[in-house]
C-alpha cells in the first residue's frame, strides 16, 4: 500500500515538527580534540558526571574488587600519570577501581572514573602497554564520546518513535511495532555503530598522545594490540563491529607512534619518567 498525505493522520505534520524540534534542540555543535565536528548536548556535563558516578558505584557494588595492593598501586600510578596530562577542564582526582575479573577489559566514565579488570594484565604486559589501555579509555571521556552517543541515540529514538506512531495511526499497531523494530535495527547498524568505530579511532589518537605526554612509550600501543589480537578469538565482520579492523589499527598506531617520539622524548627530558611497575 502506498503511503501518501491522504493516508497519514491529520496531526502527523504537527508530530513531525515537534519531533524534529526536539532533536535539533537537544544538539549543539562542538569540535573534538582531533578537529572532528560533533553533535552533543542531550544532557549537561553535570548530568553526565552524575550518570558516570552512578554507573561506577553500581559496578563496584556488583563486581568483586581486587584486594591485591600491588595491583591497585600499579594501576593507580599509571592512571595518575595519564590524567595529570589532561587539559585544565578535565583535571581532577580520578577514582580508580581494579576489578577481579579475568576478561581483558577497562573503561573510563564521565565524572573522573576509571575501571580496570585484572584480566587486562594478560595482554598489557608492561606499564607502557597498560598506559595505552588507560589513556585510550580516558580519551573517550575527554573527547565527549559519551555525550555524543547519548545525543545521537536520543535523536534516533525520537525519529524512530515518530515513524512508528505515524504508521501505527495509519495502518494499526502491528505495522507501527514492526516499523519500530526494523527501524531500530537500521539505525543501530547504519547510524550508531559507524559512529562507534569513529570514536574508537579517535580515542586511539587522543590516548596515544596522552601516553606520550605522560612519558610512556607510544610504540608500546602497537605491542598491546598485537597481544590483544593474539589473545582474541573470532570477531564479527568489520562492517558490524564497533571497533576498527585490527590490522588497520596496528598500522595507524605504528605510524602515529613515530610522529609522537619527539613528544615522548621531551616528556622524559622534562622528568616525566613513570616507574609504576
Automatic annotation (TrEMBL):
Keyword annotations from UniProtKB, A to Z: Hydrolase, Metal-binding, Metalloprotease, Protease, Signal, Zinc
Signal sequence region: 1-16
InterPro entries assigned: Mito/Outer_Membr_Metalloprot (IPR051156), Peptidase_M48 (IPR001915)
Limits of the Peptidase M48 domain: 70-256
GO molecular function, one term: metal ion binding
One Pfam family hit: Peptidase_M48
GO-annotated biological processes: proteolysis involved in protein catabolic process
Metal-binding as UniProt keyword: yes
PANTHER family according to UniProt: M48 FAMILY METALLOPEPTIDASE (PTHR22726:SF24), METALLOENDOPEPTIDASE OMA1 (PTHR22726)
Family, per entry: Belongs to the peptidase M48 family.
Record-given protein name: Peptidase M48-like protein
Amino acid at each position: 500500500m502506498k503511503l501518501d498525505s491522504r493516508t497519514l493522520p491529520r496531526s502527523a505534520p504537527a508530530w513531525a515538527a515537534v519531533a524534529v524540534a526536539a532533536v535539533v534542540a537537544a544538539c549543539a555543535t562542538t569540535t573534538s580534540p582531533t578537529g572532528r565536528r560533533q553533535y552533543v548536548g542531550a544532557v549537561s556535563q553535570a548530568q553526565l558526571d552524575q550518570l558516570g558516578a552512578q554507573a561506577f558505584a553500581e559496578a563496584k557494588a556488583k563486581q568483586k574488587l581486587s584486594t591485591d595492593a600491588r595491583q591497585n598501586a600499579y594501576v593507580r600510578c599509571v592512571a595518575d600519570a595519564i590524567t595529570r596530562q589532561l587539559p585544565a577542564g578535565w583535571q581532577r582526582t580520578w577514582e580508580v577501581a581494579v576489578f577481579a575479573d579475568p576478561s581483558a577489559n577497562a573503561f573510563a566514565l564521565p565524572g573522573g572514573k576509571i575501571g580496570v579488570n585484572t584480566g587486562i594484565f594478560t595482554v598489557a604486559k608492561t606499564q607502557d602497554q597498560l598506559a595505552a589501555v588507560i589513556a585510550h579509555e580516558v580519551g573517550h571521556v575527554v573527547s565527549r564520546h559519551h555525550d555524543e552517543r547519548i545525543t545521537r541515540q536520543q535523536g534516533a529514538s525520537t525519529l524512530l518513535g515518530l515513524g512508528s506512531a505515524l504508521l501505527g495511526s495509519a495502518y494499526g499497531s502491528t505495522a507501527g511495532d514492526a516499523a519500530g523494530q526494523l527501524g531500530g535495527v537500521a539505525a543501530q547498524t547504519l547510524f550508531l555503530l559507524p559512529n562507534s568505530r569513529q570514536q574508537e579511532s579517535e580515542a586511539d589518537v587522543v590516548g596515544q598522545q596522552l601516553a606520550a605526554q605522560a612519558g610512556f612509550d607510544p610504540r608500546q600501543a602497537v605491542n598491546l594490540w598485537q597481544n590483544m589480537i593474539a589473545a582474541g578469538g573470532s570477531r564479527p565482520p568489520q562492517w558490524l563491529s564497533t571497533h576498527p579492523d585490527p590490522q588497520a589499527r596496528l598500522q595507524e598506531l605504528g605510524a602515529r607512534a613515530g610522529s609522537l617520539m619527539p613528544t615522548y622524548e621531551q616528556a622524559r627530558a622534562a622528568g616525566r619518567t613513570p616507574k609504576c611497575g
